[in-house]
Design the sequence.
């Protein structure tokens, strides 16, 4: 009798253990299962809406032109336009007069890289940097420092002394 | 302690109210009022403006006859604008119109008008890149004071009549490397002590109507990125805006589509008129 009870208890304990493991497994799976199920429904709803869609409730705005605007490109990749094809032709001629040949084809990356290695490009960039350097002289950068240095020279003191503004508690000391 | 009735318990009974739609905004008609306006009614689709070169007066009692000469050079290229159709079209289904809170036909009309205004302004600002004089550079995003007075000098040299306009992308004006920096009393400013009146205007209003002889305009239709960014300094005669037929909106019933076709279009063109009365101001974006 006692032996039978013991076996019974062991079986019940094992059963409880199995049930707990099952609950734990289901708990772990619960969230993803629900999310996936929801995803599935949402995806099906989306499909139904897409399949069943005519075009009665949409408003389409369509732009229409009788020409296509054209862009021109310099050899160093600068874009001119886009503009009316007739304007593109006039621009092509205008730039040719100042020695810049434009193209209706955008230069490829390889072409740009190759052009950047040419003497023509290096010369152009050098000229451009020189031009910008002259223009940048119109900035006031460093002018205050130059003024301070000039005053310091005339006054026979250091620029640091001129720039040193006394705090209230330093005045008269 | 009974249960309270809340918006949560009555979720299914509370409707969602759809208000009037807000329309996406676009840039306005900035450049057209600043350039030469040409009314091109009548025959033809190409509006051509030839140039005749100037004469030279002699200090002699035996004068040489001078021919009126319309041959071209950089300054006097004939300007031809080909007019074309620019339009927008909306197919407004009855069910969409009937089911909406707003009057969708009115909305469509407004959007069509807006798209055509943007189209025109875009066509005009992209011409800025085709001026043969560029005061800016593809190598820098920083504007220098000299860029502005070089532009003024260039326009004045070729007798461009006043007023002069400076149209830039908003980010070329109000940015840590833009035009405003020239007037903020920083080390890169035009003057190093005190803001000056233009700086005061920027400080007080956030805007200055005129800088260094140019009326200042902001136009977000200008393409601005690390490779592009061309505004312009110009006089009215630099560009012509040629109007063959102004904006017209038509509505046509399409029974088969159960819809109204709402079509807006205008016929116009634009071209550089006097190349040397405009300077490109190219300052691409840093990032």
Sequence:
């Amino acid at each position: 009798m006692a032996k039978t009870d013991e076996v019974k208890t062991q079986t019940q304990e094992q059963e409880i253990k199995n049930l707990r493991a099952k609950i734990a497994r289901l708990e772990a799976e619960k969230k993803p299962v629900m999310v996936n199920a929801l995803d599935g429904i949402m995806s099906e709803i989306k499909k139904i809406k897409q399949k069943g869609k005519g075009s009665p409730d949409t408003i389409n705005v369509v732009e229409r032109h009788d020409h296509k605007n054209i862009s021109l490109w310099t050899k160093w990749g600068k874009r001119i336009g886009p503009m009316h094809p007739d304007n593109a032709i006039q621009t092509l001629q205008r730039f040719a007069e100042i020695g810049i040949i434009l193209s209706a084809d955008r230069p490829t990356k390889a072409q740009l890289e190759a052009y950047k290695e040419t003497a023509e490009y290096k010369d152009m960039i050098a000229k451009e940097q020189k031009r910008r350097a002259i223009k940048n002289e119109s900035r006031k950068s460093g002018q205050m420092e130059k003024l301070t240095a000039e005053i310091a020279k005339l006054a026979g003191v250091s620029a640091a002394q001129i720039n040193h503004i006394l705090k209230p508690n330093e005045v008269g000391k | 302690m009974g249960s309270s009735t809340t918006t949560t318990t009555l979720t299914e009974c509370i409707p969602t109210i759809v208000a009037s739609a807000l329309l996406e905004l676009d840039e306005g008609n900035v450049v057209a009022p600043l350039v030469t306006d040409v009314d091109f009614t009548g025959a033809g689709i190409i509006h051509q403006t030839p140039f005749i070169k100037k004469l030279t007066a002699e200090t002699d009692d035996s004068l040489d006859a001078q021919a009126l000469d319309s041959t071209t050079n950089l300054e006097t290229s004939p300007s031809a604008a080909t007019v074309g159709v620019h339009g927008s079209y909306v197919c407004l289904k009855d069910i969409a119109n009937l089911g909406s809170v707003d009057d969708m036909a009115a909305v469509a009309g407004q959007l069509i008008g807006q798209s055509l205004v943007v189209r025109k302004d875009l066509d005009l600002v992209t011409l800025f890149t085709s001026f043969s004089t560029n005061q800016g550079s593809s190598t820098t995003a920083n504007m220098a004071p000299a860029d502005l007075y070089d532009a003024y000098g260039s326009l004045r040299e070729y007798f461009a009549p006043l007023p002069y306009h400076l149209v830039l992308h908003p980010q070329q004006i109000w940015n840590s490397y833009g035009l405003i920096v020239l007037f903020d009393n920083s080390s890169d400013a035009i003057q190093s002590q005190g803001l000056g009146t233009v700086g005061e205007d920027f400080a007080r209003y956030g805007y200055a109507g005129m800088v260094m002889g140019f009326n200042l305009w902001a136009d977000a239709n200008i393409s601005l990125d690390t490779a592009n960014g061309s505004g312009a300094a110009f006089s009215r005669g630099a560009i012509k805006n040629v109007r063959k037929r102004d904006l017209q909106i038509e509505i046509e019933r399409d029974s088969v589509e159960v819809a109204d076709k709402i079509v807006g279009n205008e016929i116009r063109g634009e071209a550089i008129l006097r190349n040397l009365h405009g300077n490109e101001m190219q300052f691409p974006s840093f990032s």
User: Anything to note?
Assistant: The helical segments of chain A are 2-51, 85-97, 109-116, 119-136, 143-155, 159-163. Chain A touches chain B through 49 residues (CB under 8 Å).
